[in-house]
Specification:
Multidrug-efflux Transporter Regulator, Chain: A, Domain 2, DNA-binding, mainly alpha, 2 strands, elongated, homodimer, 2 domains, two-stranded antiparallel sheet
Amino acid sequence: MNIGDAAARSGVSAKMIRYYEQIGLIAPAARTAAGYREYDQRDVHTLGFIARSRDLGFSVSEISGLLDLWRKKDRRSADVKALAEARISDLYRKIADLQDMADTLETLVSTCSGNDRPDCPILQELEMPDSDDSLACSQDLGRKPGGRAAHLSRGSLKQRRSIV
Amino acid sequence: MNIGDAAARSGVSAKMIRYYEQIGLIAPAARTAAGYREYDQRDVHTLGFIARSRDLGFSVSEISGLLDLWRKKDRRSADVKALAEARISDLYRKIADLQDMADTLETLVSTCSGNDRPDCPILQELEMPDSDDSLACSQDLGRKPGGRAAHLSRGSLKQRRSIV
DNA sequence: ATAGTCCTTCCCACCGTTGTAAGGTCAATG
DNA sequence: CATTGACCTTACAACGGTGGGAAGGACTAT
C-alpha cells in the first residue's frame, strides 16, 4: 500500500512517516519502480505502536528504545517497565511545574477585582514581586488545600526550558 | 549599562534580550557610538516583568499583551484578569492531558511484573490496544480514586500537537 | 602593547509537526 | 489517447524559545 493508506490506517501522518524514516526510527520503506514507498500490514502495525507511544508522551528516542525491546525476544520486562516509570516520573515533574504556575496565577487572579478600573494586583506582582503589598504573606483566601505554595520570584520554577 | 549587566540584573539572558528586540517584544535599545546596546533601570524593570511573566508560562504573544496593558494607564483590570484566566485554563488543560498519560502509564506499569522474563503487558498494549487480554475491562487494581480513565487508543488525547 | 573580557552579527541545533512549492505517477473518465 | 484529479516524490521553511559557537570589533586593566 502507499504511504497515504499506511498513514490513514496507522494514525501517523504521511509527513511523519517520512520524517521517522529520515531520522532512522523506522527502516527505509521498499519502493515501487516509480519511487513510491510501499507498506504492508506489519509496517502499519509498527506505525500504530509508534502512534500509541507518542500518545503517551514518549519522545522519539524513548520510542526507539521501546521498539528495540518490542522486537527483541529476549528482552527483560523490567527494562520496559523502567522506561515507562521514567516517563511517569517525567510527567509528574512537569505536572508539578504547571501546577505551580497555575497556583500562583490563581492566587493573583483571586486578588484582582476584574472591573473597569486600571489598578491590578496581577500587574503589580509581575512588576515588583516582593513589594510587600498584601500578597506576600496574606490571607490564603480561597486556596485549595494541598496546593503548592505560589510565590513569584523566589526560585523553585526557575528553569524555564523544557518544562514540557 | 551594557547588555550583559542588564541580563544579570533582569534574569533574562543577553541572547534572549536580543531575541526579544528582534521579534519586537521590546523596543530596539539605544546604541553607543561603537554599536553596543545601552540599557537603563527602566529597561531592566521591563525585562524583569517579562522574566516573571515567562516563569508563569505566558507565551511571548501573551506577554506582549500584558506589556501593553501594563503601559496603558487606562487599562481595565478585567482585561488583565482575563489574560491570566485564559492562561490558567490552558494550564489545567495541559495538566489534564499529562495526567491522562500518567494514569494510562500507571495502569500499564501496575500490570507488568518487571522481572527478567520477556512477557510484558505494556508492550502488548502498545502493540494492540484493544486485544481483550485482561487489561481492557478488568480489575481496577490499584487505581487511585478519581483518576481519569486510562484507555489507550480510544480518543480523548488524540491531538498530539501542542500538549504543552 | 597586550591580554582578557565584553560586545556585535550570523548561522546552526534542538523537537515534532505542518505547510508549501515544483514536479512525477497513477487511475478513471471523456 | 488526452486530460483531470488525487496521489506521490523531494526540498525547504516555519513554528517557540533557548542555547552554542564562530568571526571580528571594542573596551579595560595592567
